[in-house]
Amino acid sequence: MTVGIDAMEIHAGKLRLDLAETFAPAMDEDPGKYTKGLGLHASSFPDVHEDIVTMGANAAHRLMERKGLEPDDIGRIDVATESAFDNSKPVSTYIAGCLEAVYEGDFHHANKGERKFACISGTQSLDDAYNWIRADRNRGRAALVIATDTALYARGDAGEATQGAGAVAMLISEDPDLVALSQEQGFGSADETDFLKPNQQFPSVDGKRSVQVYLARMREALEDYESVAGRVYSEEFRYVPFHTPFPGMVRKAALLGYRHMTRGTAIEDDLEPAIGRQPLPDEFDDESGYRDAVREYMDALKETEQYGEWYDQAIEPTLDIARHVGNWYTGSVHVARLSALRRAREDGIDATGERLLVGSYGSGAQAEIHTETVQEEWETELDALDIDDQLDDRRDISFEEYEEIHDAHNHAKDDEFDALTTPSGEFVRDGQGPMNERTYRYVE
Ligand code: HMG
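A: This is the predicted complex of the input protein with 3-hydroxy-3-methylglutaryl-coenzyme A.
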């Protein structure tokens, strides 16, 4: 049985903060830190009437309209988020409520839930849907997986530069049109305190350490994947989408991955005259000597033509969208997949049958590796998307407007702000009900 992602849609927050032109000068920092160091040009932000529900519902609505689906066709709605505003009622119920306002049918017989494990819960929700279909409990119906987040940091936190807001909706079904998911998967998981939100809206972040934890868990996940699926080699995968908190993070993960995948191969032989062979732990008396040698090897590897070519082909295309929207937490790795396929379409590449090595990650911390195979109808799916229009249509905000928008989404502040955009053909948040529930409506 082939199970995977049949269709995807995104909803980008409707505001755009330019990091080099607007944010960097206000922070008294060199724009190069953002564009070159972190690899980010802009962040997407939610307008005042947008939140995780509206963004998720808007992405899901577009997906259902495009695929000609009715609520009866959906047997499961899973929402992955780390920006939830309710510890009991799941976001999926709010999103189903929004969708029921525009469809005749309802989702009364769909199983709804909410998944939490930082950014990796988007991929975990895919897994849940995959398992549900493989177990034949779906009664012929598809699953709707929605990854939606407002990835905001406290003002002044180093993570402020990597913020973003958006949702990804994915339809999971048998015989999918976009990508098939591998049965094999690998995990790297440990109790870590690199990034967490203990009953607080904005995360406590140990930024530098979070980078190391990401790399360590990703390496473990790759080794675990290889223990079930056999060794992986760089040339087997057309694209390698990683969780992308910022492209600079992926640059580090990609180099590590390439070193791993080329170890003991003809590529390592080919590189040997220029940079030597890869250092191995048993060649050293102590850990620090080994680490220094690895660092030196990696610095040299990064500069080789072989690595540069692989990076440009397998990694760079996965970052096109992230550079302009920032971190979407649970949606981020799914944006990376879409970004790669969008580039394949632009470059006229026949990607049918090509494989992707997908690296998901969530702080706290866990990484997961699985592979995907691009399906025959992928071009039709890509052509139906309006990603460029959404990104181009965002309203640019000044630094003062950014400060207000950040406050508007800060749960601890109750100042009222006017929306900066005029909603049309979308779900909007319109207030608070008697039980403190958020209320929504559809604006024609
Ligand atoms: P920072 O300390 O402000 O930045 O925060 P920096 O000084 O380390 O600079 C960043 C890079 O820019 C460095 O490059 C600098 O050299 C370079 P690197 O050494 O890393 O290669 N740079 C420049 N380059 C060119 N021209 C210049 C210039 N200036 C500097 N003028 C930090 C960086 C990542 C710590 C911060 O952004 C942060 O705390 N971010 C939030 C945490 C995060 O994203 N961690 C990533 C891994 S954890 C993860 O992915 C999970 C997450 O998504 C949450 C979840 O799972 O739910 C976050």
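The radius of gyration is 22 Å. Residues 207-229 form the longest helix (23 residues).
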